[in-house]
Design brief:
alpha+beta; four-stranded antiparallel beta sheet; 23 helices; about 15% strand; binds adenosine-5'-triphosphate; binds magnesium ion; TTLL10; protein-glycine ligase activity, elongating; ATP-binding
Length: about 675
């Protein structure tokens, strides 16, 4: 729907337009205080104190007894082959059969791959690290016992151990990076572990694949339990505008039907409290509702469902603009070409109530980029991470028709001739934002001290957890999938927090000083956590403590919350009905028949869907042979699938110069 006069056909995909990546400084951005992250009811794991994150030796020793039997993993060459995890208690002899001990320090280095990145920290921090080191030392000791009982390296366990090896040219382990977003950081990380980069996008013998664009082949050839693959195949449930809207609506419906305890009810977020009122324009009744309710006292913002960087966005303020939008939408719907070839139709759009009174920083509009990390999908281990604030260059004027004062995206700001001169002022660290709000608003607005790291952080975490729970039962999961999702929040002048959207493939550029501080730490901890959680899942080790957890805060621990069942030697991951924030509605998962030998891994990994949004985008069947008829009967087809999402279904090359599907700011 090329609705905007200047934009023409909206972009389905876009190339990574940013300047070449600055050399990544392999420096952890440090540990940000998040005092507000601590108190949240299960399953939102408030992990405020380090003590809470790092259980004592006794607790860890429990996990040390949960190691797999030798030969437990039967590797599959294709995900559609039968893949068996045999898990069970080890025999005593396994636990006791110690191998000669390696250096404790070396072990710590192995478990915390970017330990050396912290060497530039101040001495007080070093003190803290020293005591943490000694704790890690104890943990490492216990883990060594586990290690002694493990089978030879044949899977993800090797991801950690192989970090110690000297590179063996041409023999791997290999990693593949598709695209340029964050490439040098990811590459440095992997090379520091002794892995070798392959440029062969079809290489199946990789340990890690990090692609900007999702490609069906990647998911079909994925070897569960042996590889790490960036992006959940159907993350569009969160990361397209229509996907997120549909998921939140469906979740709201489910919650409204659930019999919740009054105390639980009070804690459950309501969509309208954090998500600006939004309408889909690709559904006739819905857009009609919008056209009817529109009046000129309010501004609306119209966005394509799956574009980023502010592309194709425009504001709607007048009846004339609404009439033009109405006519354009109708003409697309009536166009015989699009009727015959709906895949040619422009991307579907939403209109969203424009937050007209944003909080301003020195007169400029801003939004906050934070991260939702799904480090492990089997079980879910989901984290929150701080990012940074993005400011416009020009002063905010709600009546201005210049979009650069309304859209805070870096991509839009880069178009300003003064950008190169003033770019450092367009990205603030969260500490800077916190100081500013303390200084300017704490007294006048009666805010608690460090509002950014207390109230605001907690609200972002609650909203993210709510969104995750909304799609949890529908995400396609396998052990080894992981995802980093960029979440954009707007604060209004009343300090109300709004979620604007979530993004796949978030921008990982480091073209500003603040980004150099923040981004490498985010990427490296993402990889550390993905490796550690996958390894622990594979070997039935307790997830906590997470030795590589630094800046990220655990939001959801599926190990303790979700239900695991083992059937016929096959570990399945069954999920209770949606909202785990309402214990009263949780039901045991229905019994499942033992899988037959032809069971497709992706089918096994398919969630047990208890009900699906009528508006939900149809899920992409990623496994050959899985016909549309095998879809859950509760799922209804979407009235329209946006262009970019259909693009995802195509088999596309993921060469190093692949275009960016996600959001490079
Ligand atoms: N409802 C809203 N009210 C006020 N401002 C908004 C609203 N929605 C979006 N914006 C502004 O427009 C910008 C772009 O919107 P949005 O992030 O939804 O689009 P995008 O094209 O996906 O951008 P991104 O590059 O962040 O992925 C936001 O960063 C924000 O500054
Ligand atoms: Mg976006
Ligand atoms: Mg955005």
């Amino acid at each position: 729907m090329a609705l905007h006069p200047q934009t023409g056909r909206p972009h389905g995909h876009h190339r990574d337009e940013s300047e070449p990546l600055a050399e990544a400084t392999a420096q952890d951005a440090g540990r940000h205080p998040s005092p507000g992250c601590t108190e949240a009811p299960c399953p939102i794991q408030g992990l405020g104190s380090r003590a809470a994150r790092r259980p004592q030796r006794g607790i860890v020793s429990t996990s040390s007894s949960r190691v797999p039997r030798p030969g437990a993993l039967m590797p599959a060459t294709r995900s559609c082959s039968r893949f068996i995890h045999c898990r069970g208690q080890p025999s005593r002899t396994h636990v006791n059969s110690k191998r000669p001990k390696r250096s404790r320090i070396q072990r710590c280095h192995t478990l915390v791959p970017d330990w050396t990145h912290e060497k530039r920290m101040g001495s007080s921090v070093k003190e803290g690290l020293r005591s943490e080191l000694s704790h890690l030392d104890q943990v490492a000791d216990l883990l060594e016992e586990e290690e002694a009982a493990r089978p030879p390296v044949a899977s993800l366990e090797g991801l950690l151990l192989e970090g110690d090896k000297q590179p063996n040219p041409g023999q791997g382990p290999f990693f593949y990076i598709g695209g340029t977003n964050g490439a040098s950081i990811i590459s440095n990380y992997c090379e520091s572990k002794g892995w070798q980069r392959t440029q062969d996008s079809r290489c199946e013998d990789y340990k890690l694949k990090w692609c900007e664009i999702k490609c069906r082949d990647n998911y079909c050839s994925f070897r569960e339990g042996q590889q790490l693959l960036f992006q959940l195949p159907n993350n569009k449930l969160l990361t397209t505008k229509i996907g997120l809207l549909s998921a939140l609506r469906e979740h709201a419906r489910t919650l409204s039907k659930a019999k919740l305890l009054p105390s639980t009810q009070a804690k459950v977020l309501k969509m309208e409290e954090f998500f600006p009122e939004t309408y889909r324009l690709d559904i006739r009744d819905e857009r009609q509702n919008f056209f009817t309710l529109f009046d000129e006292t309010q501004i609306w913002i119209c966005k394509p469902t799956a574009s980023n960087q502010g592309k194709g966005i425009f504001l709607i303020r007048t009846q004339e603009e609404v009439a033009a939008l109405q006519a354009k939408t109708q003409s697309i719907e009536d166009d015989p070409i699009y009727c015959k070839m709906p895949f040619r139709a422009p991307q579907a759009r939403v209109v969203q109530r424009y937050v007209q009174n944003p909080l301003l920083l020195d007169g400029k509009k801003f939004d906050v980029r934070s991260y939702l990390l799904i480090a492990c999908a089997m079980p879910y281990m989901v984290f929150f991470g701080h990012g940074y604030a993005r400011l416009t260059l020009s002063l905010y004027d709600p009546n201005s028709s210049d979009l650069s004062g309304h859209l805070t995206n870096q991509f839009i700001q880069k178009k300003n001739p003064l950008y190169m001169l003033l770019k450092e002022s367009t990205v603030w660290s969260m500490e800077h934002l916190n100081r500013y709000i303390n200084d300017k608003f704490r007294k006048t607005k009666g805010l608690p001290r460090d509002w950014v790291f207390t109230t605001f952080t907690k609200q972002m975490q609650q909203i993210m957890a709510h969104c995750f729970l909304a799609v949890k039962s529908k995400l396609e999961c396998k052990l080894g999938y992981f995802d980093l999702i960029g979440c954009d929040f707007l604060i209004d002048e009343n300090f109300k927090v709004w979620l604007l959207e979530m993004n796949s493939n978030p921008a990982l550029h480091t073209n500003c000083e603040v980004l150099k501080e923040v981004i490498p730490g985010v990427v490296m901890e993402t990889l550390d956590l993905a490796i550690e959680t996958c390894q622990k899942s594979l070997y039935s080790q307790k997830m906590l403590p997470l030795l590589s957890q630094r800046r990220f805060v655990l939001l959801y621990n599926g190990e303790t919350t979700d239900q695991w069942t083992r059937m016929g030697g096959l570990r399945t991951f069954s999920r209770p009905p949606p909202a785990v924030d309402q214990p009263s509605v949780r039901k045991p998962a229905p019994p499942r028949a033992a899988p037959g030998p032809l069971l497709c891994a992706s089918r096994r990994s398919r969630p047990l869907v208890s009900g699906c949004a009528p508006e939900a985008e149809p899920e992409v069947s990623l496994c050959p042979g899985q016909s549309a008829s095998s879809r859950d009967p509760a799922e209804e087809p979407s009235p329209g699938t946006p262009e970019e999402e259909r693009e995802e279904d195509k088999v596309r090359p993921t060469g190093p110069r692949g275009s960016v599907h996600g959001d490079p700011m």
